[in-house]
C-alpha cells in the first residue's frame, strides 16, 4: 500500500534504509523530492539504482549533492544520462571521482559541457581515458584548458593534417538570401580560414560574408565575431573575385562558452554565383615525442 505524504515525512533514516525496492518504487515524484537531506542519506545504493528514471529525475540538486559515494555507486548508467544540466551542476568532484567506466558511458556530451572546472578535477585518468570522442567533443575550450597534464596524457593520440577542409558551400547561383556552412567546433584547430569565391554577378547584386560564433552546433545564442566580416562586394567590376577571413580562438568569446563557428554568406538585391569553404589550420591537438596527447594553446 502506497505511503501518504505524511507517512513519508515521518520516516527515519533507519526506516528508509529498511524499505524494499518495491516500496521505494511506490513513492511519488513529489514524495521523493520532499525527502530531507537527512532522510536521503538513508536510501540504500540498491534502492537508488532501482528508482525509475522519472523518480530519479525528481531528486533535487540539494539531495544529489548529499548522496554518499556508496549511494553514487548504485546509480545506473541510464539514470545518470537523464540528469539535467542543472542537476549535473550539483554533483561534487568527489562524486564524479567514484563513477565507474560503465556509469560514465551514460553521460551525454551536453552533460559533459555543463561540468564545472571544479567537477572536472575529480575525473581520474582512468575515467578520462574511457570518455568517447562524442563526450570529449562536448568539452568546451575553457574546460579543455583546465585539464591537467595527467588527464590529457591518457587521451588517445591522434594524427591530423596541418589543414583540413571542414565544410563548404557548393558553387551555385544564389538568389538574395543567406547561405551558411555547418557549425564546427572551434577548439579543433588553432586557426580557421573562411574563403568566399564570387563568380558571375547579376547587375546590382551585392555579397557580404562573416564568421559567427555560437555555444553549440545548433547555433544557440549565435552572434557575430567582432571584426570578422568582409568588405562588401558589389557587381561593379564584375565577378571572378574572392575574399578571405582569418580567425583564431582568441577572437571568440570563450569565456562565455562560445565554442562553435560557421561561415555565412549573404547575397543581396540580385543573384550571384558564389561558393565558400571553411578551413581548419594547425591542429589544436598534437602528439608528444613519447606518443602522448596534448592540447596546443591558441596563439
What does this structure look like?
- The strands form 3 sheets. Strands 2, 3, 5, 6, 7 and 9 form a 6-stranded antiparallel sheet that branches. The chain has a 4-stranded antiparallel sheet with strand order 1-10-4-8, with no helix packed on it.
- Helix content is 32%, strand content 28%.
- It is elongated, with a radius of gyration of 26 Å.
- The protein has 19 helices and 12 strands.
- With 299 residues, it is an alpha+beta fold.
- The protein starts with a helix and ends with a strand.
- A hairpin with a 5-residue loop joins strand 11 and strand 12.
- The C terminus is likely disordered.
- The chain folds into 2 domains: 135 residues; 121 residues, Jelly Rolls, CATH 2.60.120.
Uncertain residue ranges? 286-299
Query: Over all CA atoms, what is the radius of gyration?
Result: 26 Å
**Domains counted in the coordinates: how many?**
2
Q: What portion of residues belong to β-strands?
A: 25-35%
Number of strands: 12
Largest sheet: 6 strands, antiparallel
Task: Tell me, briefly, the overall form.
Answer: elongated
Overall average residue pLDDT: 87
- Helicity, in percent? 25-40%
Class of secondary structure makeup: alpha+beta
Distance between the termini: 65 Å
Number of helical segments with 4 or more residues: 19
